[in-house]
Amino acid sequence: MELLCCEVDPVRRAVPDANLLYDDRVLQNLLTIEERYLPQCSYFKCVQKDIQPYMRRMVATWMLEVCEEQKCEEEVFPLAMNYLDRFLAGVPTPKTHLQLLGAVCMFLASKLKETIPLTAEKLCIYTDNSIKPQELLEWELVVLGKLKWNLAAVTPHDFIEHILRKLPQPSEKLSLIRKHAQTFIALCATDFKFAMYPPSMIATGSVGAAICGLQQDEDVSSLTGDALVDLLAKITNTDVDCLKACQEQIEVVLLNSLQQFRQDQGDGSKSEDELDQASTPTDVRDIDL
């Protein structure tokens, strides 16, 4: 007797809602409320005494790797970093609790965005069991209280589809542009210099950087250079010079990431299997500027 495997993917995803994507009021509402969810200050200067910027980058990289390995939705990691930054902007935190805070933020973000959220036990395993599930659950309430249960933050991903539908690019290129833009958004979330940027600016700069990078190899848009930047700035009511500066910074972050990857590859500090894993939603090795 033959056994047939009839298992299907248990994850169910909603199809894009045209009523939301094609109504400009939705975009305007996002632009109106986005700054409510930004950190209130550059917390390394006035709040945190024990935590340094490089520590944030380390925990952010770890969080990104966990989200990638667990195949989380693209929104989970930037949303978790938003929670982490908003918490650190108001609560002095010992560096020994930073990974615990990162795990709690992923826990909360996955509950909001995932069909099947990450479990406390699984997150504890990723910390080499340095924290216990009960400790994570207790800190979940602490973080929720400090964030005033205001978890539905606006992230750059909320703007991507609104931006793409207004650009005159071939429809068959949309998925590639979207994929690269998601990579830039993830890279921005790991770098503190973007923590105070409005999500709409990061999204717009990421789309612009994606199109400019892809334009070298193939025709992905009829607009290039200043014309593209002007249109992107108009879509999200962003200052053109600020947008250009943001896009340049995004490209610098990508180049630094590529250089770090090549250095690690040259040093042989990672195994071949680790090098084959994408560390972002799009492998940075696949991006060209």
UniProtKB/TrEMBL annotation:
Stretches for region Disordered: 264-289
UniProt superkingdom: Eukaryota
A molecular function (GO) term: cyclin-dependent protein serine/threonine kinase activator activity
Classification via InterPro entries: Cyclin, Cyclin-like_dom, Cyclin-like_sf, Cyclin_C-dom, Cyclin_N, Cyclins_cyclin-box
Residue intervals of the Cyclin C-terminal domain: 154-284
One Pfam family named in its UniProt record: Cyclin_N
Cell division recorded as keyword: yes
Keywords: Cell cycle, Cell division, Cyclin, Cytoplasm, Membrane, Nucleus, Phosphoprotein, Ubl conjugation
GO biological process: one example: adult locomotory behavior
PROSITE patterns named in the record: CYCLINS
Location in the cell: Cytoplasm; Nucleus membrane
Residue intervals of the Cyclin-like domain: 61-145
GO CC list: chromatin; cyclin D2-CDK4 complex; cytosol; nuclear membrane; nucleolus; nucleoplasm
Family: Belongs to the cyclin family. Cyclin D subfamily.
Function of the molecule: Regulatory component of the cyclin D2-CDK4 (DC) complex that phosphorylates and inhibits members of the retinoblastoma (RB) protein family including RB1 and regulates the cell-cycle during G(1)/S transition. Phosphorylation of RB1 allows dissociation of the transcription factor E2F from the RB/E2F complex and the subsequent transcription of E2F target genes which are responsible for the progression through the G(1) phase. Hypophosphorylates RB1 in early G(1) phase. Cyclin D-CDK4 complexes are major integrators of various mitogenenic and antimitogenic signals.
Subunit structure: Interacts with either CDK4 or CDK6 protein kinase to form a serine/threonine kinase holoenzyme complex. The cyclin subunit imparts substrate specificity to the complex.
Protein name as annotated: G1/S-specific cyclin-D2
Gene coding for it: CCND2
